[in-house]
Amino acid sequence: MSSTIRLLNHASVKISIENINILTDPWFSGSVFHKGWKLIYEQSEDLIKEYIKDLDYIYISHEHPDHFSPNFFLNKEYQSILLKKKVKILFQETKDKRVLSFLQKKGYEVIEIPDDKFFSLNPKLKIKIIKFGYIDSAIIIEGSKEKILNLNDCPLNEINEIKNFRKKHGHFDLLLTQFSYAAWKGGKDNSNYRKEASKDKIKTLINQYKILGCKSVIPFASFIYFSNHLNNYMNDEINKPHIFQNLLPENINSIVLKPGEVQSIEKLNQDNNSLNFWKENYDFIKSKELEKFNDTVSFNILKDQFTNYKKKIFNLNSRFLIFASSKIKFLKFFQPVNIYLIDHNKNYLFSFFDNLREIRNTNSDISMHSESLSFIFKNDFGYDTLTVNGCFSASKEGFIKSTRTFAIGSLNSMGLRLNLLLLLNIKLVIFFLKLLRKVAKKL
């Protein structure tokens, strides 16, 4: 029996290989990233139930909600099918165990896979999960005939990085990789940044394909649109399948699938009906109703949330290191941030060593809705969510300052703490600084 692949949606595919059915990153409905993203097309629950009824495993690449959707695992009908079939969840080993704990409490069996170690699913099929950056992971699926690499949105971008990956992991028959940008890319007037980001995604796809010696590539993990009235301008330069396919060199065997489409991995071919399907749905983006932040969070509530947020930060991290870092001028970490709340029409000063207070200085570093600031205070991953959904505006300097102040929450959400031990993790520090420099250069 030949191996097959079926696209369900976005980053979710069903791979049938060596009599094993593996589903990846199920997210099939609803808004994610705090009213920031929606799927371009949604399938019915009945179709999803049909697709998942014979699963053996579900692989979750990372905790972002477009890859790990709690609503999918909480859906009673889906849950009934998965638990009855005793479907096992494959996930990377993490320090915080948050995803593991959530799934186990709902009755799912979770297998934590150590980083960069092969794990056998049966005598003819093995997998390897490889960690990337802060929270991402990729999966290698290797059967007796095919070797598949699912990169989803892992940051394997630089030529030297791809070559090193090739040296360590070899070549692949099939590559699955992201094809468009998926986070804030400058303000409304910075369309050039977004144009370059889209071009970079295509260049990266081509480099990955050629250097990794792939026979075919399936572009995916980008079938979304920015769905909020504060971020919908970012749809202006996203890569659209029916357009970028024509921009690829002829020697790139790229196959765009539509939801529900299944093909033999050995004989992948582009169906023009799939390109037409996506053209129609991408053209429809402009007519979709946009999400809005409707609830203004009062200053008094924000002050209380700020107090709790600051207390939690100091409980988890070294107050001394936060203070010391704020005093080292060239580092510019943990500086006071001037935040303009668009629904308040006021500026507020945020500082770890002061109260949240209104100020008259209108030279803001960053502007957002009060719901977004409240979300940052209530969730470790709040600022990370904001940078993905793009529901804010900031200058180059303002964005960098805000990131160097609020990113500590993202650090904590991964189970990491700012202490002397973390400072010894040079790779993590360098990765963060390189990421900031890259964004600054683009801006």
Furnish the topology, listing elements before pairings.
Blueprint: E1 4-9, E2 12-17, E3 20-24, E4 37-39, H1 45-52, E5 57-59, H2 70-74, H3 76-84, E6 88-92, H4 98-105, E7 109-113, E8 118-122, E9 125-132, E10 136-142, E11 147-152, H5 159-169, E12 174-178, H6 191-211, E13 216-220, E14 224-226, H7 241-247, E15 262-264, H8 272-283, H9 299-316, H10 319-327, E16 337-341, E17 346-350, E18 357-359, E19 366-368, H11 370-378, H12 382-389, E20 392-394, H13 396-413, H14 420-423, H15 426-442
Parallel strand pairs: 3-5, 5-6, 6-7, 11-12, 12-13, 16-19
Antiparallel strand pairs: 1-2, 1-15, 2-3, 4-14, 8-9, 9-10, 10-11, 16-17, 17-18, 19-20
Helix pairs in contact: 5-6, 9-11, 11-12
Detailed description of the structure:
It is globular, with a radius of gyration of 22 Å. It contains 15 helices and 20 strands. 42% of the residues are buried. It has helices spanning 45-52, 70-74, 76-84, 98-105, 159-169, 191-211, 241-247, 272-283, 299-316, 319-327, 370-378, 382-389, 396-413, 420-423, 426-442, and strands spanning 4-9, 12-17, 20-24, 37-39, 57-59, 88-92, 109-113, 118-122, 125-132, 136-142, 147-152, 174-178, 216-220, 224-226, 262-264, 337-341, 346-350, 357-359, 366-368, 392-394. It is an alpha/beta fold.
